[in-house]
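job 3f2a | input accepted
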Amino acid sequence: MSVMYQPKKEDKFTFGLWTVGNRGRDPFGDEVRAGATPIEAVRRLAELGAYGVNLHDNDLVPINATAGERDRIVAEFKTVLDDTGMKVPMATTNLFYHPVFRDGAFTSNDPAIRAYAVQKAMRGIDLGVELGAELYVFWGGREGAEVDAAKDPVSAVKRMREALNFLCEYVMDQGYKMRFCLEAKPNEPRGDIYLPTTGAMLGFIATLAHPEMVGLNPEVAHEQMAGLCFHHAVAQAIDAGKLWHIDLNAQKPGRFDQDLRFASEGYKGAFFLVKLLEDNGYDGPRHFDAHPYRTESDQGIWDFAAGCMRSYLILKEKVRQFNADPEIQEAYREANPTDPDLEALIESYDRPKAETLKAMDWDPEELAQRRLAYERLDQLTFELVTGAR
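job 3f2a | predicted structure (389 res):
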C-alpha cells in the first residue's frame, strides 16, 4: 500500500472502544468473534496510526464494578494510554443498554430512573475527565417512544433540557474543562427518538441555560436514515460554530443503522463530506463510529480499522486534486458567478441599499437563460473521484 495513505497522529483519527470491540451480535444472531479488549484496542490502534480512542463508561468499567475494581481497571487503562501516546478526546455514558433504560433515561416517566441517569452521567463525566477527555457526547438512544399515549413529548424535551442544564452546572462547579456534544438519530432502537436530526438539536441547544457549552456530534448514518444529506447537516453545524465532534461511517439508503466502514457506500457523498471538513479547517477528532462486518473474524477488525483511516486519506487527496484541477476550477467558477457590487448590496440591510435594489430593472427571462454548467462539473467530479482523471 502507498505510504501516502498511512495515517499519522496529526490526522486525529479515533475509534470507539465499542467499534473494534464489536462482537458481531445482531437482533437475529449471537456473537461471532471475541472483539478487542480495551487494552488490546489501544495497542493495536496505536500500531495502525490512530490518534486515540473514545469510550462509553461501561466499555471500560462494568456497570456493576466495585470502587476498587473501577480504580484498578482505570489505572491499567491509563498506563497503556501513556505507553502508546494514545488520547481519549471524547467520552460518553451508556444510557441505553441496561434494562433500566428500556423507556428512556433523561426522558423516562419515572423520576427515580431520571435521577439515576443523571448520577450515572456525572460519574461518567468524572471518568472522562480522569482520562483526559474534553468532549462528552450525549446520544439519546432510548429517549423516545413507541406508545405516544404514554409519553408527553413536551415534557420529554423539558426533562432532557433539565438534565443537560444540571450537568452543565456540574461541570462548571467541578472546574472541569469539558464541553458537551449532542448526537441526533431519528429512530432505532426506539420507534421514534426525540430531537431526531442535527437541525432539531441546533434548535434545542438554543433553549439551554448554557448553550455555549453544548455543540454537535453528527453521524453519517443517523442523518441518512432520515433520508437527509449528511454533509448539508454538517455544513449547518459548521455555520453555527457547533461542529465539535463527528461520527464517520457509511450507510445504505433506507436501511437500519448499519455503521458500515467509512466510505464503503456512497463514495461521492463521502468525498464531499471530507471536502467540507478539510476546506473549512475542521480541527476536531475524525471519529469512526462503525464496526466490522459480522462476517469478519478477529483479523477483520483491524482490516476494518485500517480501511476507515485509509479511505479518509484517499478522499482527502482527492479533495486536494479537486481544488488544484484547472478544468474543475474553471467549471466551478462558471457555476458560481460573482458580482462584488451586487453582493455588497444584499449582504446587509440599510435603507439606501433597499431603495437602490427596489429601483433596479431585472429581466427574469434573461436571468433564466444564464448557463449553470452543473452537468459538466458533476461529471468532472465523478471522473476525479473514480480515478479516471
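job 3f2a | The beta strands are 13-16, 52-56, 90-92, 135-139, 144-145, 179-183, 192-193, 214-216, 246-248, 286-288.
job 3f2a | closed
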